[in-house]
Amino acid sequence: MNSRRDFLLKSGIFCTGALVVPNICLATPAKDVYGVQLYSFRDDMAKDAKGTLQKIADLGIKEIESAKSAKGHYYGLSPKEMKDTCQELGMKLKSGHVHLDKDFERTMEEAAAADQEYLICSSMPSNGQNVANYKKVADAFNKAGEACEKLGIKFGYHNHEYEFESDNGQVLYDILMDNTEPDLVHMELDLGWVIIAEKDPLHYFEKYPGRFPLWHLKDMDMVKEESTEFGKGGLDIPLMMQYRKLSGVKHIFIEQEEYTNNPIDSMRHNMDYLAKL
Questions:
Q1: Domains of the chain with bracketed CATH
Q2: Model pTM?
Q3: Nearest to 84 by CA among 127, 57, 107, 115
């Protein structure tokens, strides 16, 4: 059985000619603005949220995506404190990872108080890896999207690798895409988990153009199946960046869960890498 790295190389997923689209789809924004998923700094944020946000701002990060923690959605800060602290540092709290659970109404109220644009369900609410369950989840997502829309918030979903498993010949992530309303459920595509699942992000950009307003830009060690610094893993980041317009991405959040040394050094490497593209 081939390793996942062998699969990616032999399938040609990351060859420049793997996807043919009109040149207009390759247009990119005039200025790049990068954000970060705060789970990348989870331990530091738990110890000193404001101090860590200062260090993140010093790296040139402009947008923030929060994540649920033992101290709540904002690492012990109130929604307003989180919003104000980011603004004072020249950053914008754009999004947050949350759970779609019994406390979701309160979660929405917090997001409104924090002036977030997006609320992103961070993982599948149920473990049922079958078409019927994914259709059920899609319906729940549509309803959550309606509820968020009333508060001026956009609801979305962030994938891992398991959504790309198949049931009766159907890819479950595709079931989710086909049964959610694009104006109510805004997809955040985690590019790293897509390639770990042995799928091609460019395929999804082509099949569902404009459906991915948010990305998690994450390089992956294909042997260890964990995140790594940009340029050290299996994701062809320069190629991905050429297809931003086709994907519909508006906000790119860098995420790295494992590090060679520490989160700050890894993120500095990632920002330097992007600056040289």
A1: 4-9+33-275 (3.20.20.150)
A2: 0.89
A3: 115
